[in-house]
Amino acid sequence: MVESAPDGGGEHFGSAWDQLNQFADMIVREGEKRGLVGPRELDRLWTRHILNSSAVLDFVPEAGSVIDVGSGAGFPGLVVAICRPKCSVTLVDSMDRRCTWLEDAVDELGLQNTQVLHGRSEKLIGRTSADIVTARAVARLRKLLGWTMPLLSSGGSLLALKGVSVDEEIDEAIPELRRYKAAFADVHAVTPFGTHEETQVLEVRKKG
Prior knowledge:
Layout: H1 9-13, H2 17-31, H3 45-53, E1 63-69, H4 77-83, E2 86-93, H5 96-109, E3 114-118, E4 130-136, H6 141-148, E5 152-162, H7 166-172, H8 174-179, E6 182-190, E7 199-206
């Protein structure tokens, strides 16, 4: 059974709400067929994926540049692109079929602020940078830092959606945090609109 969108979404998300619903419809229609989500994921499509992705929005400026690493089905990258139309958003994934899906989604949603890059994030180092880098379910922090921190502009932030082991990940990544010149690593506990589950947004700020 497909989970329904929560009530009050139009008031909370404003003009982005229609596009979020359109994105959800695309996932329902194509997601399982394209191998992007499992059949059991549709019964929590909103709470576990779309609304969970929105947890990063409090830390993404209204305008600026964003790179989403390991975009997959578009969480959180497409959600950010929809909700921050003045941001320039780059979706990065190493799998060709996922990039094809992302390009189709960008076209169908009519997103003018979004581009898709096929490849590994390490290949972008030295070629591009952004104010914000986002990641969800990509890797543990000590590995993720090497893929993301070099993509950040000075003073920029990595925003990673993490689970209950986030403090443990920070502790084991202390050498890498120093190596990649992190100013701080803070954990923000967020309960996204329309959900009752707290999620952890890990913010790693790069020194200016």
